[in-house]
């Protein structure tokens, strides 16, 4: 049957406790020496006895000093002495500077608005007046620049609209000239038709081939029987028929 688990608890007997402490401490130092030699490890052990608090027992790897090992330990796990304090002090001073700067800006803003002027001295009031004058001059200069830029933009728009208006007027004049030429040609044709002569109408503008003039032509021409009754000749009636046929062929 296997050995049962031993319960570890404080040894009440002082003599037995001191004997056990001495044996276990010696065994611990022996094991630490073996580990240091076999594995080339740096080991430091500090032991205080519960019965003798003023008694210190320490161990260091062979060829090493316990103080050196502890310094290495502190450099790896503990922050530098005073490091956190210096960082906290630096952050605190930075916050104070920012707060002072913010308060100064707020105070200057109130002064520029004409508020909290009572604590200011004559020198400070004079400096504030100079600052306001400089700000006012810069504001006026910027306003003038904006107005000039806006006026220049409006002038460009005016010139552009003027060019468009000029082109439209020229186009209107061309259309009116074409209309007058057309009416003159049409009046000439009517005059020749009234005189009973053939007038070879030849369109001079491409748009004349696409106009719709069926009803005006038929209304303004003379019927065939009118010429027959008036003159009583076959040749004159044939001429009128030819003219009407010519108009109908030209109409689209």
UniProtKB/TrEMBL annotation:
InterPro entries, sorted: MADS-box/MEF2_TF (IPR050142), MEF2-like_N (IPR033896), TF_Kbox (IPR002487), TF_MADSbox (IPR002100), TF_MADSbox_sf (IPR036879)
Keyword terms: Coiled coil, DNA-binding, Nucleus, Transcription, Transcription regulation
Keyword Transmembrane helix attached: no
Sequence ranges assigned to domain MADS-box in this UniProt record: 1-63
Residue span, K-box domain: 88-178
Alphabetical list of PROSITE patterns matching this protein: K_BOX (PS51297), MADS_BOX_2 (PS50066)
Cellular component, GO annotation: nucleus
Subcellular location: Nucleus
Gene3D superfamilies: Transcription factor, MADS-box
Signal peptide: none
GO molecular function: DNA-binding transcription factor activity; protein dimerization activity; RNA polymerase II transcription regulatory region sequence-specific DNA binding
SUPFAM superfamilies: SRF-like
Residues in coiled coil: 88-115
Protein name: Uncharacterized protein
The species this protein was found in: Kalanchoe fedtschenkoi (Lavender scallops)
């Amino acid at each position: 049957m296997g050995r049962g688990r031993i319960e570890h608890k404080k040894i009440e007997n002082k003599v037995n406790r001191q004997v056990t402490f001495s044996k276990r401490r010696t065994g611990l130092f022996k094991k630490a020496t073996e580990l240091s030699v076999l594995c080339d490890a740096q080991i430091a052990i500090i032991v205080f006895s519960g019965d003798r608090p003023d008694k210190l027992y320490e161990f260091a790897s062979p060829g090493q000093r316990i103080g050196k090992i502890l310094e290495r330990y502190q450099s790896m796990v503990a922050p530098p002495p005073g490091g956190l304090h210096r960082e906290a002090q630096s952050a605190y001073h930075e916050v104070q500077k920012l707060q002072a700067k913010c308060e100064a800006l707020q105070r200057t803003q109130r002064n520029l608005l004409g508020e909290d002027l009572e604590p200011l001295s004559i020198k400070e009031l004079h400096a504030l007046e100079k600052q306001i004058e400089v700000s006012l001059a810069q504001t006026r200069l910027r306003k003038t620049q904006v107005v000039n830029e806006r006026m220049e933009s409006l002038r460009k728009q005016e010139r552009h609209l003027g060019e468009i208006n000029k082109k439209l007027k020229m186009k209107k004049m061309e259309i009116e000239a074409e209309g007058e030429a057309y009416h003159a040609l049409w009046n000439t044709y009517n005059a020749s038709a009234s005189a009973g002569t053939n007038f070879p109408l030849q369109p001079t503008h491409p748009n004349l081939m696409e106009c719709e003039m069926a009803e005006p032509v038929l209304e303004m021409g003379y019927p065939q029987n009118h010429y027959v009754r008036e003159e009583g000749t076959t040749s004159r009636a044939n001429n009128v028929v030819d003219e009407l046929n010519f108009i109908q062929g030209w109409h689209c």
